[in-house]
Design a protein that fits this description.
By secondary structure, the chain is an alpha+beta fold. The protein has three domains: 10-40 and 387-580, Up-down Bundle (Multidrug efflux transporter AcrB transmembrane fold); 45-116 and 375-382, Alpha-Beta Plaits (2-Layer Sandwich); 122-356, no CATH class. Helix content is 42%, strand content 16%. A five-stranded mixed beta barrel has the order 4-6-5-11-10. A four-stranded antiparallel beta sheet has the order 2-3-1-13. It has a three-stranded antiparallel beta sheet with strand order 8-9-12. Strand 2 and strand 3 (98-104) form a beta hairpin. Helix 3 runs antiparallel to helix 4 (109-116), helix 11 packs parallel to helix 13 (517-548) and helix 12 packs antiparallel against helix 13. It is elongated. The two termini are 32 Å apart.
Length: 592
């Protein structure tokens, strides 16, 4: 008994796909007409050349810069260089004293200024925090009318039943669901950060805002600052996140993982107040090591008094105003809350993070303790490492591979192979449009590794239609009509196609996370073309097959269609589609 999809409307699916192509094409043409878009993909450093900057880190305090601090500076500059998108910049150290930045094309003056600006750690009190992606109440937090603390110090600062209770003078981990494993000893409700109480977040601010009297005063939050906070997007395309932050005003900032955004008060202690930062396991009451990971901070004599005064004030405030955020490059790297006042200049940050994460944070804190600026030594134009000849050879190899696939499809599947050819051509056009648009909107640069990923994509798309076609032919061999074989074959083939593409996508994600910049170009295009393969198979190959089998040529199994039951050795090829098969009916011969 055959099963047919009676409600399938493949024509509408194909029209929708065509409309999607038109939207992409019109967007690209409009960008080239009225914007700075170009009609060809932007090329990477190895194919187009670019600009090389040699920077020398300079300490504002004349301290000697260690190799660890130089490596940390390199990592921060690498993040700045790619802040506008997936640019493919290369940042390396040279001679133990210089940082070499190689960027494709000609970087703008704003990009150069962002790369060279000083990096200084800042400690700022948290005035307001919002979990990104959760519903919030859009109201400006203001202080309580009485001007007194709104929470009890014992209830907000002292945790219950927690391993960190034994630690002396230690700010514990962040409040709320924090990424990278940070875990508050007293986690509040995530939505409570937006509305602490009726007195903390009224729906209408006062007509005149009094002058703030301390760094923790909510009067720092003006209407303009709150509007800036609401407009802040935590992502690489946020240009405001690259600007300087004055030390004597309240600012907005994002978590380095992009899951929270903050309103922070003025700087109370800068990075120069940290004498040392180290990661390890916290000692127990008897001096024995425990399994609690901590970051131990030692403050300088100048910062000890200021830190003691601000911690004594903040320990009495409710969450999140009892948190002190460490800000580096306008990103909050950690924001622990105070469990008790810190008067001796020694603090301990504990939480549910691993020893590797604690060491990374300790390095960031130590790097921020040394204010660095970067002096430009040389600025040179560099030629392409591979050049246009290698690019042409790579594209030629891809074209030869595609032509071989075309020939195989026509030989193996007769005229049905034109569906496969159409799928490959559409996948190529869609890939071209998407890569070009990404170059315009996100500064994506196509390097030679990315071209390799595009060539590999030919095999991925070919594998998908081979799985689909062979599944249809198996159904025909089992005695189904051709039309019902398409529907039944798709039900089984689609699962196989999705499983194969999922494995490819997983491999691309692992390469993207673990590999260096060159291999990441391959990983990006591999993942992108895998998504495009799913789009083409589901929205072109499948509906096109459903339309073709409604025509007598394919539905009745013509010998050149690639679906002829007799040539496929069907068990019962008497009926196929909507008419009889031209030619004799085969009978199974049983050898004696």
């Amino acid at each position: 008994m055959s099963t047919q999809t009676t409600h399938a409307r493949p024509g509408r699916v194909l029209v929708g796909l065509a409309a999607f192509f038109v939207v992409l094409l019109v967007t690209l043409l409009a960008g080239s007409r009225w914007g700075d878009a170009q009609l060809t993909p932007r090329l990477g450093l190895d194919l187009e050349g670019g600009t090389q900057l040699v920077l020398t880190p300079v300490s504002d305090t004349d301290q000697e810069i260690s190799q660890d601090q130089l490596d940390q500076a390199r990592d921060i500059i690498s993040q700045r260089a790619d802040a506008g998108g997936i640019a493919g910049a290369e940042v390396t150290t040279q001679g133990g004293r210089n940082i070499v930045v190689s960027m494709p094309g000609v970087p703008s003056q704003e990009t150069e200024d962002a790369i060279r600006r000083s990096s200084q750690l800042q400690f700022r009190p948290v005035l307001y925090v919002e979990q990104i992606g959760l519903p919030q109440v859009p109201s400006i937090p203001t202080p309580a009318p009485t001007g007194e603390p709104t929470g009890d110090a014992t209830e907000t600062a002292t945790p219950t039943a927690s391993p960190t209770e034994t630690a002396q003078a230690s700010p514990t981990a962040d409040q709320g669901p924090i990424p990278r494993g940070f875990e508050a000893t007293t986690p509040p409700d995530p939505s409570s950060t937006a509305t602490e109480s009726p007195s903390e977040a009224p729906t209408a601010p006062a007509t005149e805002t009094p002058e703030p009297t301390s760094p923790t005063d909510l009067n720092w939050i003006t209407e303009e600052l709150f509007a800036e906070f609401q407009a802040l997007t935590c992502g690489q395309d946020d240009e405001a996140a690259q600007a300087e932050q004055p030390a004597d005003v309240a600012v907005v900032a994002c978590r380095d993982t992009g899951t929270e955004k903050y309103i922070l008060g003025p700087v109370v202690v800068d990075g120069s107040g940290i004498a040392d930062a180290s990661a390890g396991y916290q000692a127990g009451p008897q001096g024995q090591p425990t399994n609690i990971v901590e970051i131990a901070l030692e403050l300088t004599s100048d910062a000890r008094q200021v830190y003691g005064e601000i911690s004594s004030e903040m320990v009495q405030l409710p969450t999140p105003r009892n948190q002190l955020a460490a800000v580096l490059d306008r990103q909050v790297i950690v924001a622990p809350y105070f469990q008790s006042a810190i008067l001796d200049g020694r603090a301990s940050i504990t939480g549910a993070f691993t020893i590797e994460e604690a060491r990374t944070l300790a390095q960031q804190l130590k790097f921020g303790a040394l204010p660095l600026s970067f002096q430009l030594e040389t600025r040179d134009q560099i030629s392409p490492l591979l050049g246009g000849e290698q690019l042409r050879k790579g594209l030629l190899a891809g074209l030869i591979g595609m032509l071989l696939v075309f020939g195989y499809a026509l030989f193996q599947y007769r005229l049905l192979g034109f569906v496969a050819i159409g799928s490959l051509i559409l996948a190529g056009v869609l890939t071209y449009l998407v890569v070009t648009l990404l170059g315009w909107r996100y500064n994506y640069r196509l390097d030679m590794a990315g071209v390799t990923g595009l060539i590999v994509a030919v095999g991925i798309t070919a594998d998908s239609f081979i799985v689909f076609f062979e599944r249809i032919r198996d159904e025909v061999r089992d005695g189904r009509t051709i039309r019902s074989a398409v529907d039944a074959g798709w039900e089984r083939a689609s699962r196989t196609i999705l499983a194969g593409d999922a494995v490819t996508m997983l491999a691309a994600l692992v390469l993207w996370i673990m590999a260096t910049s060159n291999v990441r170009g391959f990983a990006f295009t591999l993942g992108l073309t895998t998504i495009i393969d799913v789009i083409i198979v589901f929205f072109f190959t499948k509906p096109m097959m459903q339309l073709l089998v409604r025509r007598p040529f394919f539905g009745e199994g013509h010998r050149l269609s690639g679906l002829n039951p007799q040539l496929l050795g069907a068990r019962n090829p008497k009926y196929a589609g909507r008419g009889r098969v031209r030619g004799p009916v085969f009978e199974e011969k049983v050898s004696s």
